[in-house]
Amino acid sequence: MDSGAAIWLYPLIGAASGILAGLFGIGGGLLIVPALVAVFALAGSAVPDALAVHVAIGTSLAVIVVTSVSSIAAHHRRDSVAWPAVWRLVPGILAGGFIGARIADALARNPLQAIFGVLAILLALWMAFGRPPPPEGRRVGPLIWFPVGVVVGTISALVGIGGGVMTVSWLTWQGTPIHRAVGTGAACTLPVALAGAAGFMLTGADVPDLPSGSVGYVYFPAAIGISLASALTAPLGARLAHALPVKQLRRAFAILLAVVGLRMVIGAT
């Protein structure tokens, strides 16, 4: 059974992750995964230390399923979701979500945590210093979208961040305005979270020592506590995203990625 501290921390994590989900279109996993790893390390946690990262990622993906619905609705009301791009990416994202869950199941805790951190840092550097696209944008052939979706789904499910981080980066590279990229990224978090959470439940189904209330690597006491709060605050994050200037939104996104990435890499050493 979780300690009292852990139970009270879940809604706080959810409130913060919901704001980030709406603000950056990322699903909230960049906060949820490291926060859950820290909570699971507290005395009285029901989650064994050796399984903490796997359970954190699986639980994060389950939470993102709920959070993304609220975030998508908020961005759709502002006409900031490029639905044609979503439909092009979804088939690959679904395939990649299952692939990522299977790869994660085969990895130990520290390599998985290090992968998460390095990915976040690289994306932060690109967002902050990468060359901007030409004014007319970059054209991408139709055959490229499926493999890109597979990469987005695999990496996102592998580290529990939903599809938003990779999708926002991909769309801004093409020249999509940042506010529209964020809204589209929010929409892409749902399919990768569904596929990834299902994959983590299946791959963890026979793992011993998981706590009561778990289905595979998804720990539902944490998932419920976080998702209820995150669904309430995601629309606030979407409102903030549309209030911020483009340059400030890109800079804030890069800082978020860098800080979380550094913390995860340091924790894996």
Mean pLDDT: 80
The helix/strand class is mainly alpha
Q: Strand arrangement, largest sheet?
A: 1-2
Treating each run of at least 4 consecutive H or I residues as one helix, how many helices? 10
Share in helix:
over 70%
Characterize the overall form: globular
Ranges where pLDDT stays below 50 over 5 or more residues in a row are: none
Q: How many domain units? A: 1
Largest sheet: 2 strands, antiparallel
N-end to C-end Cα span:
29 Å
Q: Count the strands?
A: 2
| Proportion of beta-strand residues | under 5%
H/E series: HHHHHHHHEEHH
Give the radius of gyration.
17 Å
Fold and architecture overview:
By secondary structure, this protein is mainly α. It has one domain. 75% of the residues lie in helices and 1% in strands. The protein contains 10 helices and 2 strands; from the N terminus they run H-H-H-H-H-H-H-H-E-E-H-H. The chain has a two-stranded antiparallel ribbon with strand order 1-2. Strand 1 and strand 2 form a beta hairpin. Helix 1 packs antiparallel against helix 2 and helix 7 packs antiparallel against helix 8. The longest helix is centred in the first third of the chain and has 26 residues. It is globular, with a radius of gyration of 17 Å.
